[in-house]
Design a protein that fits this description.
Layout lengths: L2 H8 L5 E2 L9 H6 L1 E4 L9 E8 L13 E8 L2 E7 L8 E7 L6 E7 L3 E7 L4
Parallel strand pairs: 1-8
Antiparallel strand pairs: 2-3, 3-6, 4-5, 4-7, 7-8
Length: about 130
Amino acid sequence: MSEESKTCEADPFCGIKSAKDPANATDFEKKHTPTIKAPDTVKPGEFFDVTIEVGKAVSHPNEPGHFIQWIELYSGPTFIARVDLTPALADTAVTIPVRLEHLHPLKAIARCNLHGAWLGEKNIKA
């Protein structure tokens, strides 16, 4: 492992994190990884809802000292939406209506004010 990789690994705000082994994620990883709920199959050009929830399996705190700052949604590399959150919100789930002409895996990135950005993904098909 390079010296730069070691430094980035120790810095919670360096890069975007994901569960090292999603099938056996730790409670810490489950608490921070966004979960995407959307249909498995969609028709290009038709609206559908995408719900993104942080802390679905293990609740994430929502208090002034520790909270989810924002959630972003992408279709592949294409930015779709961003929702800014505050610690006053009781829920870390957002629903976004989406219409896509080109279907790529959905990606959600959520940023914890203490532990950085975390990635969740879901494949969709036509």
